[in-house]
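Handout, page 2. Input:
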Amino acid sequence: MALGMKRQDTIIYWVKFFILLAMLAVYFLPLISMFITSIKTRGELFVFPPVFWPETPQWQNYRLAWTMIDYPKYVVNSLILALFYTVPCLLGSSFVGYGFSRFKVKANKYLFPMVLSTLMIPPIVTIIPLYLILRNTPLVNNHMFWIIWGIQGTPFLIFLFKQYFSTIPISYEESARLDGAGRFQIFFSIMMPLVQSAFIISAIFAFNWVWSDYLMPVMMLRGDRVNLAVRLATGYSDVQDNMLYNIGMAGIVYYTLPIVILFFTLQKRFISGITAGGLKG
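Output:
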């Protein structure tokens, strides 16, 4: 009887393992296809039946992807936009989340659901009206726009910070106030270190949003001030304006590496932090 149960458990274990392995393969299939496409010749992209692996891998596509569009310059542009947005966004979201967590006013029961309800509005709906409002201002073609855009915070991060701050006993702040600490001193000296996981998670989200953003930069920026996402979409073509998809895929491989490295470096903190923020409060 015991031997039969053990055999059944082993079968169930391996069935689950292969199901998860199949799901993992489906998840990574676009990344695998992207890499294989990046080392094909242009002719191999359009043959039928498709060529799974190129006859001669074209590793020089990665060199061309780096040099054809002045890749380092647009990486710097993307990093500037990401930093200009991420830092103000963390401050704005954490301030608002802290306010909802600590300032018990009657309006909170209306304001907080109102803020969360904006999560249901697709960002693309607001981009064109925003551009029409700002098109005659100095903020067009100006990286400073991302600071103003970020300081307002985002509903998801506001919710995340509110959940984290709600887990911290208010007695910490009361003790600090008895010692003469002001509200900002309490926030930066006591509360921020206690919710550092929330700041790390929020930084990953905010950085990824701007690093991978195409619509806002293509609307608001011009010429050499655009970010890497916009340049990748327009920069890889031959003299007849035919798109060089293989070289473009090599550029996209470079493009995804920072986010992949950032996620796997902070994976444990990211997952545990999301779980803690979702379950507590």
